[in-house]
Specification:
By secondary structure, the chain is of the alpha+beta class. 19% of the residues lie in helices and 35% in strands. It has a five-stranded mixed beta sheet, with no helix packed on it. It starts with a helix and ends with a helix.
Length: 301
């Protein structure tokens, strides 16, 4: 658990960032929204979202009956559109630019709703995504209720359709809450539809289902924000979809410490490349895809 001071510092930063004024107009966007409440997944589905008015709340997260206009498709409009379709209340603060409460879970001094777009809080590093960030078709929006911004968020990567008795292979990624770096999530419990598994060191898991239906796979691990994935199990067999490799950024630690493009960032990148060049000199290691890339590039940068 991180200190209250750190939580409040991050909360204050987000509140300031999320006050950005929405200015440009745009049409709707088809996105996926995932809402992870304190104890359960509230939503994980595709939604069409666009400009609209959202209900606002005062600074203590109590509805004041006001409204604010969002003129772009954003994480805010996606949450509001999902809430409308699900018959759940959604409240927003600071002129409708951050999520204050959703489906009865209200933020406060120690717990609050945070958001990610495409599993990230920053894009580029050092520039926080917020309630004014414009969404485009295919984006994924994650809203999650937490008491600590630095907790990693889990993301389940797998096919969403599988036949009865077939093996569904997948992977769980862990996205760092502070640096946006991604790694394979080991020791995660994956359950749903009567199936269960635990991820290995590589984050991989395999499950199978005994009956057709629609189920929600849930990925949980102490100290992390829940991951989820809706899966449809059919009576007929489905084509096997291979699990894509985990997306990694070997310079994520540098981006977390330095502004991208700065002298400090460049020095950090050179140090990482030098370290990896040394580690890739063994005959076994040099055959890996990463080492081939490292050795081909050398220590430039």
């Amino acid at each position: 658990m991180h200190t209250v001071t750190r939580v409040f510092t991050r909360s204050t930063m987000l509140a300031l960032a999320l006050c950005a004024v929405i200015t440009a107009s745009a049409g709707a966007a088809q996105v996926n929204i995932r809402v992870e409440g304190a104890t359960a997944t509230r939503a994980n589905a595709a939604i069409n979202t666009g400009p609209r008015s959202v209900s606002t709340a005062n600074s203590s997260c109590v509805a004041d009956g006001g409204g604010a206009a969002a003129t772009n498709p954003t994480a805010i409009t996606a949450a509001a559109d999902w809430a409308d379709s699900a018959g759940a209340a959604a409240l927003f603060g600071f002129g409708g630019s951050y999520l204050c409460g959703l489906a009865g879970e209200i933020g406060g001094a120690s717990s609050y709703w945070l958001m990610k777009i495409n599993n990230k809080t920053q894009n580029p590093p050092g520039t926080y995504l917020d309630g004014s960030t414009k969404l485009t078709d295919g984006d994924t929006v994650l809203w999650y209720f937490t008491d600590d911004y630095a907790k990693p968020t889990l993301d389940v990567v797998a096919a969403q359709t599988v036949g009865v008795g077939q093996t569904l292979s997948g992977r769980v990624d862990s996205w760092d809450g502070a640096t946006d770096s991604v790694s394979a999530a080991a020791g995660v419990s994956v359950t749903g539809g009567g199936a269960s598994a635990t991820t290995g060191a590589d984050g991989l898991f395999s499950v199978s289902f005994t009956a057709p239906g629609k189920f929600m796979l849930s990925a949980t691990k102490t100290g992390a924000i829940r991951g989820s994935l809706p899966v449809t199990v059919t009576a007929a067999p489905q084509p096997v979809v291979p699990v894509p490799p985990v997306r990694t950024n070997r310079f994520a630690a540098c981006a977390g410490k330095h502004r991208k493009g700065s002298a400090g960032f460049r020095r950090c990148v050179r140090a990482v490349r030098a370290k990896q060049s040394r580690e890739c000199r063994s005959a076994t290691a040099r055959e890996s895809d990463l080492c081939k890339k490292v050795l081909a590039r050398g220590n430039r940068g």
